[in-house]
Amino acid sequence: MKNTIRFGAIAAAGALALAACSSAPEEEPTSSATGGTETEAPAESVDYKACMVSDQGGFDDASFNQSAYEGLQRAAAELGVEVAEAESTAESDYGPNLDAQVAAGCDLIITVGFLLGDATATAAAANPDTHFAIVDFGYDEPIENIKPMFFETDEAAFLAGYAAASASGTGTIGTFGGINIPTVSIFMDGFLAGANYYNEQKGGDVTVLGWDGAEGSFSGDFEDQTQGQNITQGFLDQGADIVMPVAGPVGLGAASAIQADGNSWLVGVDSDWTQSAPDYADIVFTSVLKQISNAVFDTIEASMAEFTNDPYVGTLENGGVGVADFAEGTVSDEVVTELETIAAAIMNGEIEPSTAG
């Protein structure tokens, strides 16, 4: 059906290579299938305990929870910290899981995902001497003992949207989310803007199903894979041949529909889906990467020396976001060169990735 050999689709010198390729600022260790991390030798144990609470998607979501967990395990292996984790299966688990981690004497508790924002703030207020960090959430008023971790994923999704528009054989692509929250819609904004920019630059007429910048298609949660399969099938029936689900495990349902279709592609999010969802590697066009693993590791390492609530912000420029390799034969050399130029324009502010086009 498709040639699944993959290549480094965006590779350039200096800042452009950092911006557009899939690597993070420093090389990540090899991850095991269970989310653990392989290193040459274990680090000497230190007196520091780093803990983590997942959102309801769980640590095996092939997405942001899994990536965060890998960063925690890397910290255990390379920094010698003691680690613990609590996996949530429902919103009602958030408070009790946080309370249990506080009771366990954690020095730093990392919560994973926008949905834990309120529960984390409540726990932080009740335990001012405990340090917290949260992935994908920020507070209108900074909280002294919570460090936010943000990712400008629209920057990378813009590149994926432009590439998808260039590669579509039908002139129709699509995206949908799990829940309409900012950390989901930011991917969709970038993807739509990138496709629109392609149309503007090339005189194209590529249609993006599922998101218009304000309203779109959402599964309603991050668990129901059947919903992901049904939404994606609806897109395929309308002619879409590239679909980006931003829905955690729901995206696996999308992958199932695309694989069964045999003539369409998936854009993964958060992690490289050729690695995190290897059963679907043959249908992955690219993935929009959030280097959550590195952010978690760096936050733990920095907090061991001195905790601050200064936000971590992952961007193209610092390698906190990026795109994975494209499937061979899908993106032309000309488009690769264009993507390098676009990445530079995003970094220097010439292109606003959520609204361009």
Tell me what you see in this structure.
The chain is an alpha/beta fold and 357 residues long. It folds into two domains: 41-151 and 292-314, Rossmann fold; 153-290 and 325-347, 3-Layer(aba) Sandwich (Rossmann fold). The chain is built from eleven helices and 16 strands. Strands 5-4-6-7-8-14 form a six-stranded parallel sheet, with helices on both faces. Strands 10-9-11-12-13-15 form a six-stranded mixed sheet, with helices on both faces. It is globular, with a radius of gyration of 20 Å. It starts with 5 loop residues before the first strand and ends in a 10-residue tail after the last helix. The model is unreliable at 1-40 (pLDDT under 50).
Cα end-to-end separation: 33 Å
Summarize the helix and strand pattern as letters. Answer: EHEEEHEHEHEEHEHEHEHEHEHEEEH
Strand content: 15-25%
Please write the CATH class name of the largest domain.
Alpha Beta
CATH architecture of the largest domain: 3-Layer(aba) Sandwich
Low-confidence stretches: 1-40
CA radius of gyration:
20 Å
Which class of secondary structure composition applies to the elements? Answer: alpha/beta
